[in-house]
Write a structure and sequence with these properties.
- With 476 residues, the protein is of the alpha+beta class.
- It is built from 6 helices and 20 strands.
- It has a 6-stranded antiparallel beta barrel with strand order 2-9-13-11-10-14. It has a 4-stranded antiparallel β-sheet with strand order 6-5-3-8, with no helix packed on it.
- Strand 12 and strand 13 form a beta hairpin.
- Helix 2 runs antiparallel to helix 5, helix 2 runs antiparallel to helix 6 and helix 3 runs antiparallel to helix 4.
- The radius of gyration is 62 Å and the shape is rod-shaped.
Length: 476
C-alpha cells in the first residue's frame, strides 16, 4: 500500500473517533408527549354473527312424502302448505269411522224416538187406569151406600111425569080415532098418535121400574159385580204403572247409544286430526332456507323437512370480551360493519347476556358475553349466518387530565412518570384513574401541558439533561 493511502486511512479513523467522542458527550434523546385535558373515550370492538327468527318444520306423522310444494329460497306465508304425505290409508280410515258415527247417531235417534212414544203411551195408560179405578170405586161405594132420599124423590117425580104424559097421549089417541072415523084426519096422523101413546106407556113402565129399584136398593149381585169391576180396574192401573219400568230400560239404552255416538264422533275427530297432519304447513312467514327431503322419502315424526327463516326479523349476536363488559349497555347505539357493506349500519343493543361463556373448547379461560344488537335500518343488506363487526365508543370520563399510558410506570405498588422540564428529566409520583390502554386519567401529580417521557428514558436518572423529541401527533 502506498504512503498516500495509509495516510488517508489514518485520517479517516481519527475523524470517526472524534465523532464518536462528540456524540458520547451529547445529552440522550427522549420522546415526550404533553399532558392534555379531554374526554377519556374507550372504543368497543366485537365480532358478531347475523341471526334471524327461524324454525324447523317437521312432520307429526310417519309417512311417505307425496308432494313438495316449496323449495329453497321460496317465500312462504304462515299456514301455507309446504308438503303433503301419502294419505290414502288415513282417508279410508276416516270414511269408515264416519260411517260408524252415522250408524251410532241413527241408533241413538231411533231409541230416543221410541222413548218419547213410550213415555206418552205409558202416561196415557196410567192416567186411564187411575180414572177407571176411581170410577169403579165410586160406583161400588154408591151401591154399598144404597139410594139416597133425593134419588127416590127424583124417581117418583119421573114416574108422575111419565103418567101425565101417558094420559095426554091416551087422550090424543082417542081424539085421533074419532077424527079418523069422521074422515077429518089422515091415517098417518092417527098412526102417529098411536106411536106416541106406545112410547109414553113404555116410558111409564121404565120410570116405575127405576122407582122400584131405587126404593128397593142395590142387589147383592150388583154389588158383587161392581166390586169385581173395581178390582179389575185396580189390576189394570197397577199393570200400567209396572209397564212404566220399560221407560227406565229405554233411558239406559239411550244413554249407552249416545255414549257410543260420542265415541264414534271422537274416533272421527281423531282420524281427521291424523289426516290433517299429512298437510305440513309453515308455522311462520319467511323464506325456505333448507329443504332436507325429496318426494318419495319417508318423513319421520320430529325430523325436520324444512328450515324457515324470517329475514324481516334480523339481529346480530355480538361476542363481547368479558373485560369489555363495562363498555356495553342496553340501549347503546353501535355500528355494524362487514365486507359486504359499503357503509356501517346503525344498530342498538337490546339485550346483554346474563352469563359469561367460554369462547371455545380450546380457550376455556377466555370468556365472552353475548349481546343482541337490533339493526335500525339496512336489514335487507344482511343475510343470516354472515359475520360482522360491531363497534362503539364509550365516554368513560369527561374533561379530565390525560397522559399517554406508555408514560405511566408502576413500581412497588406506586405509579410514576418521568417529567421533562428545561431539558432535564425528573421522576414524579402520580395517581392514575381509569384507562383505555392508550391514555390514562391522572387525578393527581400532573398539570395540563406537562411533558412526560413516553420512550427513551427508562434508564435515565433524575437531573439528567436530555434532548426532547415530540411524539408524532402531539401538537402541544
Amino acid at each position: 500500500m502506498s504512503r498516500y493511502w495509509r495516510f488517508a486511512l489514518l485520517a479517516a479513523a481519527v475523524v470517526v473517533a472524534a465523532v464518536a467522542v462528540w456524540r458520547a458527550t451529547l445529552p440522550p434523546q427522549v420522546t415526550v408527549a404533553a399532558v392534555r385535558r379531554g374526554d377519556l373515550v374507550e372504543a368497543l370492538s366485537a365480532s358478531g354473527v347475523v341471526e334471524a327468527a327461524q324454525t324447523d318444520v317437521a312432520s307429526k306423522a310417519l309417512g311417505r312424502i307425496a308432494a313438495l310444494l316449496a323449495d329453497e329460497g321460496d317465500a312462504v306465508s304462515r299456514g301455507q302448505t309446504l308438503a303433503r304425505l301419502d294419505a290414502t290409508e288415513l282417508q279410508a280410515q276416516l270414511a269408515e269411522r264416519e260411517a260408524a258415527r252415522r250408524a251410532a247417531e241413527a241408533e241413538a235417534a231411533r231409541i230416543e224416538a221410541g222413548l218419547v212414544q213410550e213415555r206418552a203411551a205409558s202416561r196415557a195408560r196410567i192416567d186411564g187406569g187411575r180414572a177407571a179405578e176411581a170410577a169403579a170405586l165410586a160406583r161400588l161405594e154408591e151401591l154399598r151406600a144404597g139410594s139416597r132420599p133425593q134419588e127416590i124423590e127424583r124417581a117418583r117425580q119421573a114416574v108422575a111425569a111419565a103418567r101425565a104424559e101417558e094420559r095426554n097421549a091416551a087422550a090424543d089417541y082417542d081424539r085421533a080415532q074419532r077424527l079418523l072415523a069422521e074422515g077429518a084426519i089422515a091415517r098417518a096422523d092417527a098412526d102417529a098418535a098411536l106411536a106416541r101413546l106406545d112410547a109414553s106407556r113404555a116410558a111409564l113402565r121404565a120410570a116405575e121400574e127405576d122407582l122400584a129399584l131405587v126404593e128397593a136398593g142395590a142387589r147383592a149381585e150388583q154389588i158383587a159385580a161392581a166390586e169385581a169391576e173395581w178390582q179389575a180396574a185396580k189390576a189394570e192401573s197397577a199393570a200400567a204403572r209396572a209397564a212404566a219400568g220399560q221407560i227406565t230400560v229405554l233411558e239406559r239404552s239411550l244413554q249407552a247409544a249416545r255414549a257410543a255416538a260420542e265415541q264414534a264422533q271422537a274416533a272421527v275427530a281423531g282420524a281427521r286430526s291424523l289426516l290433517a297432519e299429512t298437510e305440513i304447513t309453515a308455522p311462520i312467514s319467511g323464506w325456505v332456507g333448507r329443504r332436507y327431503l325429496d318426494v318419495g322419502d319417508v318423513a319421520a315424526p320430529g325430523a325436520p323437512l324444512f328450515l324457515i327463516t324470517d329475514n324481516d326479523r334480523l339481529w346480530v349476536t355480538a361476542e363481547v370480551d368479558e373485560e369489555d363488559l363495562a363498555l356495553v349497555r342496553r340501549g347503546q347505539s353501535v355500528e355494524v360493519t362487514a365486507e359486504a357493506l359499503a357503509e356501517p349500519l346503525p344498530g342498538k343493543v337490546t339485550e346483554v347476556g346474563p352469563v359469561a361463556v367460554s369462547r371455545g373448547l380450546e380457550q376455556v379461560r377466555a370468556k365472552i358475553i353475548r349481546c343482541k344488537v337490533v339493526l335500525e335500518r339496512g336489514r335487507e343488506l344482511l343475510k343470516p349466518g354472515m359475520e360482522v363487526d360491531v363497534s362503539a365508543r364509550t365516554t368513560l370520563a369527561k374533561r379530565v387530565l390525560l397522559a399517554p399510558s406508555d408514560a405511566v410506570v408502576e413500581s412497588e405498588g406506586k405509579a410514576f412518570v418521568r417529567l421533562v422540564a428545561q431539558d432535564t428529566i425528573r421522576r414524579r409520583q402520580v395517581t392514575p384513574g381509569r384507562s383505555n390502554y392508550q391514555e390514562t386519567e391522572i387525578t393527581a401529580g400532573l398539570s395540563e401541558g406537562d411533558l412526560v417521557v413516553v420512550a427513551g428514558g427508562a434508564d435515565l436518572d433524575d437531573g439528567r439533561r436530555v434532548t426532547v423529541r415530540r411524539e408524532q401527533g402531539d401538537g402541544g
